[in-house]
Automatic annotation (TrEMBL):
It comes from Actinoplanes octamycinicus. This is Alpha-1,4 glucan phosphorylase. One of its GO terms (cellular component) is cytoplasm. One of its GO terms (molecular function) is pyridoxal phosphate binding. It catalyses: [(1->4)-alpha-D-glucosyl](n) + phosphate = [(1->4)-alpha-D-glucosyl](n-1) + alpha-D-glucose 1-phosphate. SUPFAM superfamilies: UDP-Glycosyltransferase/glycogen phosphorylase. GO terms for biological process: glycogen catabolic process. Keywords: Carbohydrate metabolism, Glycosyltransferase, Pyridoxal phosphate, Transferase. The keyword Transferase applies. InterPro entries: Glycg_phsphrylas, Glyco_trans_35, Pyridoxal_P_attach_site.
Amino acid sequence: MDLRQGIGLRRLGTTADEFQQDLLSSLYYRRGTTVESASPRDAYEALVLTVRDRLADRRARTAAAHFASNPRWVYYLSAEYLLGAQLEQNLLYSGTGEVAAEAVKVLGRSLEEIEDLDVEPGLGNGGLGRLAACLVDSMATRDIPAVGYGIRYDFGIFRQSLEGGAQAERPDDWAFQGNPWEFPAPDDRQVVHFYGHTEPVAGSPIRKRWVPGEIVLGEPSHMLVPGYGTETVNIVRLWRARGSEASFDLSRFSAGQYAEAVQEAVRAENISKVLYPDDSTELGRELRLKQQYFLCSCSLRDIIRRFRIRNQNWDDFAEKTVIQLNDTHPTIAIPELMRLLVDEYELDWDKAWSITRRTFAYTCHTLLPEALETWPVHLFERLLPRHLEIIYLINMLFLREVEDRFPGDTDRIRRMSIIGEEGERRVRMAHLAVVGTEAVNGVAELHSKLLRETVLQDFADLWPAKFQNVTNGVSPRRFVKLANPRLSDLITEGIGDDGWLTDLDKLAGLERLAGDASFAERWRAVKRANKIDLAAGDPDALTDVMIKRFHEYKRQQLKLLHVITMYHRIRANPTGDWVPRVVLFAGKAAPAYHAAKSIIRLINAVGATIAADPVVAPYLKVVFAENYNVTLAERIIPAADLSEQISLAGKEASGTGNMKLALNGALTIGTLDGANIEIRARVGEDNFFLFGLDAFEAAEMRIRGYHPREFYDRDAELKTALDSIMSGAFGGVGHEVAESLLGWDEYLTLVDYRSYLESQDEVEAAWRDRDRWTRMSILNTAHSGFFSADRTVSDYAARIWRVAPVTVPRED
Ligand code: GPK
């Protein structure tokens, strides 16, 4: 299929010369400048456009093939996407990396210099947002017809820097100079309503008219999501809020009231102004609910528009559409689809409900109670009055079903209700998400089991078949091939071809090389070269990394207690045979999360004390890498020897950094939490450093009554570590960290301390035996193929989405 021919366009060339011609043409005609006067930005944008063009053909053929087959579509709804930098990825996915490197020389710049201008869109917080990006990558790679929907925040996750060792935040104006990767689609704009009231509709007991109090426009643009090794190019469509034309008040402007004249437009545009930087906690802010509804309303209308291009009959909607809800953030889509079907398309309630329930599926990403979203009923009533009515009706019919199954069990009804009645009445979004969907999944085996047995137990009793597990995965293209080209080349050479990039189980082919001395030598050389690139410290030291959001449940404070203990041990025995370590932390804390910020502050204070201590500094170095994001992760992960996955068991839903690090040959020290369990089962007990309570023991301990002081009193080294913080040994910093550990220690840090330290001793024993360590490292990579997001997507496709791939024909 050649869609260009029909309109008389020439095919884009594949040689460096042809690429260079197109690059110069982009510079001249699309940037309106010349080689002589091109700024660095001009060079960058000209290159982006030239690369983008090379994906445009594939995009056009994808759209044509999808239109022709009228397939069942996957729509992924997510408030967050951490797509990572686009240029390097799209050079790889369009197969133009080499010709581009050659061609850009004409601009007097290297490809690396130009790539430095490619800032990543930080439209997410952490694991959940990056998972969304990995899944859309794998959907395209597996030829699944899919669209990702999200919000085009003006400001992404804040930029972190350290000021006097404390986290400081600056806004992330990521598209300040424009974003050449995106295609605006103003014709597909949508109108979104807020506030106001509802009115009865004559002749219908169910339908209502919603008279809104505010009208906002949603303008879409999309980013290309190419598949690797296939023709498919899908899209992520991002919505940006705008005031309508009527929101500019000309008469006020003419009267000199400039601020008042634009206040309505400003209010509208605030909806997509900034990403909420809270990971796993809910603030219950009105603007956040507005963002959620904005995303869902725009996306659902777009989904319906797309459905109606090829279909007429609502009976087909649920057959042609599956909408995956990435956590509860887009759950308002459920009552919104009901509203559209009942009020606007005039379907009867039962039919609309049957369609809705069969259309949606829900992924839960947490077990932390504070992360389960609830919204005050009064807020809902004011902002989305019609949706609250619909939720009440859904709830009434649902509770009737519960009553039929469990007659007289009023306690169960109270527990399961979509409306929580304890204190202030609140809408429980997770309950709505379970009631309104066909499938609910957790993101790792343990997480899915705990969901069924604890948080969502009542629902699992009612609908056991609805609950599934789909273990997370990561993109081997971004996190191995792009991040770690040296290792990728070695793997390809070891296995014989690069088929592992789309069939990651093939990494098992490395197993036979784990005992091969010359391969091991090269494996070590790759790691060493990556450490030199990272330049965090001595490349021969054990590089021990803890990279993730700062949260007390993840227990950076436990890692810190280990560092402090090492500090005291070395000082007590300066001539000991210590294993040199570089301990690298990176991650952001939510700006309002004071306890997490105190931990960052203390890490840096301890790091400074150690650096200034001539006895300890030769063996121990603490590095805090600022502004952790996807780009930085891609530099750190390839250089890591040891991966810290030390959350309290039962708290980390899955983790995905753990997978990226294992794939890159880092050994894990970890608890039996989230996907650690599955990693350990695959790489083997001997190749994983396990410690700590399991989820059952941790829950028991909390119930029995836990007194951190007892652990402090019993363990001399722990006492020394905490006392040194309290006595001000680290620049007087960290009191509140020590106090919280001694006072309550929500996440049982002191309980796991001793076991963690013993496990770290085993780490050092393994590290001293170089050959053993390398063998373990190779086996980690060899046995981590399961953690490809391609496998995750295949699981969703087979068990939840029931979609088949659509092959996009090649050019003839
Ligand atoms: C879970 F609930 C949330 C959230 O609000 N943000 C977020 O990043 C993470 N997550 C989990 O904490 C990780 O364990 C998990 O791997 C990731 O989501 C993807 O499922």
